[in-house]
Design a protein that fits this description.
Blueprint lengths: L6 H5 L16 E4 L4 E3 L4 E7 L7 E5 L3 E8 L2 E7 L5 E2 L2 E5 L3 E5 L2 E4 L4 E4 L5 E2 L3 E11 L5 E7 L2 E7 L9 E10 L8 E9 L6 E5 L3 E2 L2 E2 L6 E3 L3 E3 L4 E7 L9 E6 L2 E2 L2 E6 L2 E8 L5 E11 L2 E12 L5 E3 L3 E2 L3 E7 L8 E7 L3 E5 L4 E6 L8 E10 L2 E10 L2 E6 L8 E5 L3 E2 L6 E3 L3 E6 L2 E3 L5 E2 L6 E9 L2 E12 L4 H29 L4 H26 L1
Parallel strand pairs: 2-10, 12-20, 22-29, 31-38, 39-46
Antiparallel strand pairs: 1-3, 3-6, 4-8, 5-6, 7-10, 8-9, 11-13, 13-16, 14-15, 14-17, 17-18, 17-19, 21-23, 23-27, 24-25, 24-28, 26-27, 28-29, 30-32, 32-35, 33-34, 33-36, 36-37, 38-41, 40-44, 42-43, 42-45, 45-46
Helix pairs in contact: 2-3
The structure holds 2-acetamido-2-deoxy-beta-D-glucopyranose (11 copies).
The site of one 2-acetamido-2-deoxy-beta-D-glucopyranose has 3 residues, from loops.
Keywords: Cell adhesion, Disulfide bond, Glycoprotein, Immunoglobulin domain, Membrane, Repeat, Signal, Transmembrane, Transmembrane helix
Membrane topology: Single-pass type I membrane protein
InterPro entries: ICAM1_3_5_D2, ICAM_N, ICAM_VCAM, ICAM_VCAM_N, Ig-like_dom, Ig-like_dom_sf, Ig-like_fold
């Protein structure tokens, strides 16, 4: 301030006069004309006139502490020290010979002691927050401009022009901001500018930066888990939040019955999902809680899950005999909760059901019931939901062998020269053994064998098991085909041979034993007749 070049004074650029009404002999001015001084500081003031009288007297009237620092023809200078008055206008006077006065208006300033930007909480996206900047102990506030910046972007600028307070003040500037996702991580600063130009300088003080943290967490988490879970099994519980930001900062706590579970968290876009394995070894109801914390918000979802114990039911299907009454028992030991219903069914329909344990079903065993499949079903009711399991079993009904045309055809015709096997089985439980016998010779069943005419005949098949035995007759026919031409040729040849033999014999016998002629004739006739009978019988058999 005080080291302003003297040159300007002689050019007479800045002249402040007071009370110069009538044309006067001299001019009086103060230098500097608009002094700017820091609170508590000091400055020099020069009362300068155009008075050429070396004896002319001048002075300075002020409440401030002053010290004369020099004088000369037409001027007198003072040093003002410890300027702690916010408003002061020292009055310069000169007598040359009349009295003239000039006033200097001093601007006292104070740079801000501190500029404080108040910290902000973690902000919820979409909500309004006040950015508050305090500028402490600053003057004059009409020269103060408070600027709020987000990064390089100007958010708000406030000039406190209208204020006409001259002492140091605390200034608070508030600006409303609406939190946005992209504000997260940005820095906000407050800048206090004390602009004393043109007579002074520009002071700028900036607050420490405040880093913004924003979050979005609009919806409650959703918990996905079955309503009822079997004990001893591992089930996945899934907790999901959507629309969250910053999604990677979402903190999950999954718990089951008050015990924290180990969760794997994965974020995709603004959806975050946490998964944990849930299991219990004991039946009962447990609370599953998913708590998500993000920013300042904590939200949770709770579900009650019913754990049940359900071993497969037992089905007792005792072996029985045909015609006896058999009772099937269906039970479900170890089920918890014990509110169970049982059902016995077969492939077609429900046979009986009820809550009594064990559940029984009695039937008169028949051959058809052998191998019949029965199912025992148990259904447990847990928290209004039901879960079930089933066990199946086959009934074994013992019965004596039974044979019929279906399993053992009573007439079986085979072709001579082919290979055939006797098919003959018997029903029965246990599986019966079957033997077919003709003339004390057994015919192997199911074993291929060459067919000969000798197989022809009636067989007695006997089936046996522990429950008894059954007989069944089977006739086997063997079909053979001899061509007729051969038969006739053989017949003709046979007759020819006999005739020739007879002729030769006759001639010889006639010559040798003429007397036995009659007997010989009778014998050859008998032989031919017998041949004829044999051949004729074979033909009849063939047809
Ligand atoms: C006061 O002003 C006069 C002329 O205007 C100059 O000669 C003199 O040196 C100044 N005094 C001081 C102390 O600046
Ligand atoms: C001017 O200065 C002289 C010494 O330099 C001093 O004796 C005298 O008192 C001063 N005059 C005024 C009016 O202060
Ligand atoms: C300045 O003035 C204040 C009060 O007016 C006083 O307490 C202080 O001692 C003074 N300082 C000097 C250096 O004169
Ligand atoms: C912000 O400040 C204004 C007045 O200064 C007040 O009415 C409002 O409630 C404040 N808002 C918040 C979010 O604090
Ligand atoms: C300004 O604030 C400071 C600290 O908060 C306090 O000590 C001082 O008295 C305040 N000044 C005024 C003028 O209110
Ligand atoms: C600030 O102070 C200066 C004194 O140097 C004054 O001339 C100016 O009018 C003031 N500016 C504002 C904007 O109040
Ligand atoms: C404010 O800025 C000025 C210079 O621009 C400096 O002298 C002063 O120490 C600063 N005040 C604070 C509180 O930083
Ligand atoms: C998670 O929640 C459970 C029950 O709500 C609590 O007991 C446990 O301390 C929590 N764990 C953490 C790490 O916050
Ligand atoms: C089987 O039970 C029925 C009625 O339940 C009974 O009339 C019948 O005599 C029983 N049969 C046998 C073999 O026990
Ligand atoms: C048992 O379950 C049935 C439905 O399956 C329900 O109607 C009944 O009230 C339950 N009983 C008890 C004691 O829970
Ligand atoms: C078995 O079938 C034959 C004809 O193939 C028939 O003559 C006989 O009567 C049948 N036997 C029975 C018990 O049905």
């Amino acid at each position: 301030m005080d080291n302003t070049p003297m040159v300007l004074i002689f050019l007479g650029v800045f002249v402040v006069t007071e009370g110069a009404q009538q044309p006067s002999a001299f001019e009086l001015s103060v230098w500097p004309p608009a002094p700017v001084v820091e609170y508590g500081g000091s400055m020099e003031l020069n009362c300068t006139s155009t008075c050429r009288d070396p004896d002319a007297r001048g002075g300075l009237e002020t409440s401030l502490t002053k010290k004369p620092i020099g004088n000369g023809t037409g001027w007198i200078a003072f040093r003002l020290v410890n300027i702690t008055e916010w408003r002061s206008s020292p009055l310069c006077f000169f007598q040359c010979p009349e009295i003239k006065t000039a006033r200097a208006s001093i601007t006292v300033y104070r740079t801000p002691e501190r500029v404080i930007l108040e910290a902000l909480p973690t902000m919820q996206v979409g909500k309004d927050y006040n950015l508050t900047c305090q500028v402490l102990n600053v003057a004059p506030i009409q020269n103060l401009t408070v600027t709020l910046l987000r990064g390089q972007e100007l958010l708000h600028e406030e000039m406190l022009l209208s204020a006409s307070i001259t002492k140091a003040e605390n200034v608070t500037v508030t600006h409303k901001i609406t939190a946005r996702r992209r504000d997260n991580g940005m820095e906000v600063t407050c800048r206090a500018g004390l602009d004393l130009r043109p007579h002074g300088q520009l002071f700028e003080n900036t607050s420490l930066g405040v880093r913004l943290k924003t979050f979005a967490f609009p919806d409650d988490p959703k918990l996905q888990v079955p309503d009822i879970i079997e004990t001893g099994t591992d089930t996945t519980m899934q907790c999901q939040v959507v629309g969250v930001f910053p999604s990677e900062e979402a903190q999950f706590n999954l718990s089951c019955g008050g015990e924290s579970l180990e969760a794997t968290v994965r974020a995709q876009g603004d959806t975050v999902t946490a998964e944990a394995r849930v299991s219990s070894l004991t039946a009962g109801e447990l609370n599953l809680i998913c708590t998500v914390t993000l920013g300042l918000k904590t939200k949770s979802a709770t579900r009650t899950v019913g754990f049940y114990t359900l071993p497969p039911p037992t089905l007792n299907t005792p072996a029985t005999r045909e015609g006896e009454n058999v009772t099937l028992a269906c039970d479900s030991p170890g089920v918890e909760p014990t509110n169970v219903s049982l059902r016995i069914r077969d492939a077609a329909r429900t046979l009986t059901s009820g809550r009594e344990r064990p559940l029984r079903f009695t039937l008169a065993a028949s051959e058809e019931d052998n191998g019949r499949e029965f199912v025992c079903e148990v259904e447990v009711s847990v928290m209004g939901m039901s879960a079930g399991k089933e066990t199946s079993g086959k009934l074994s009904v013992l019965y004596a062998p039974k044979m019929d045309n279906a399993s053992c055809p009573s007439d079986q015709t085979w072709e001579e020269g082919t290979e055939q096997s006797l098919s003959c089985t018997a029903r029965g439980n246990p599986t019966p053994s079957v033997e077919c016998v003709k003339d004390d010779v057994a015919l192997k069943i199911g074993v291929p064998q060459p067919v000969t005419r000798a197989l022809t005949g009636s067989y007695r098949c006997t089936a046996k098991n522990t429950q008894g035995s059954a007989d069944w007759d089977v006739s086997i026919h063997v079909r053979y085909s001899d061509p007729d031409i051969l038969l006739i040729t053989l017949l003709t040849l046979g007759i020819g041979a006999v005739a020739s033999a007879a002729g030769v014999a006759y001639y010889m016998y006639y010559r040798a034993h003429k007397i036995r002629k009659y007997e010989l004739q009778q014998a050859s006739l008998k032989k031919a007749q017998e041949l004829k009978r044999l051949n004729g019988g074979g033909m009849a058999n063939h047809v």
